[in-house]
Amino acid sequence: MTAGAALARLIARPGTDAGNAGDSGDAERCGLCAAPAEDEHRHLLDTTDGELLCACRACALLFTRDAAARGKHLLVPRRRVRLPGPPPGRELGVPVGLAFFVPHPDGTVLAHYPSPAGATRWELDPEVWRAAVCRRPALGTIRAGVEALLADTVPGGADQHWIVPVDDCFRLVGVVRQEWRGLSGGTRIRPAIARFFDELTPRE
After folding, report:
1. 34 belongs to a structural domain
2. Residue 52: is its pLDDT beyond 80?
3. Residue 155: inside a domain, yes or no?
4. Which end of the chain has fewer CB atoms at under 10 Å, N or C?
């Protein structure tokens, strides 16, 4: 299943784990072996095209134990960590209050902000990111390509930031696309984003 198809599922339940969306009559299938994927299944990132694939338990276990089996795919981790202190979004030059930052193996960091048209992105100044990592060493633990810094600094919001798996970011993009109304987002968008963050739970 591609990232676009996975995203359509993930927007259904913004507070659940990434694999929980969908009903039992239309089960997800593993993007590698086509076996049915469990409700709380893992995801794989295809590094050649950035697509997100569902993974059944057997394939996820294989990618956990056997580095040689990984090839072009990376298993998306489950870790979620809420970081203390004020969100670093402002010091990273975010022009909006809601954004996520994905470091990549080549050293680039892509910043994304969810919008009704999807996720708008730009490349962050490497010096700005390195300075942020020096001030906040936890940012240096983000796993390239499969984890992100997620920041919410919208006025009136929770003013928080997390290290999350990238499939959480896909879910948030889906929430924004589903709930946005009109030019400014309407009355539904902020409560939906607040619920998303309220229902994030720390995990290793």
Report:
1. yes
2. yes
3. yes
4. C
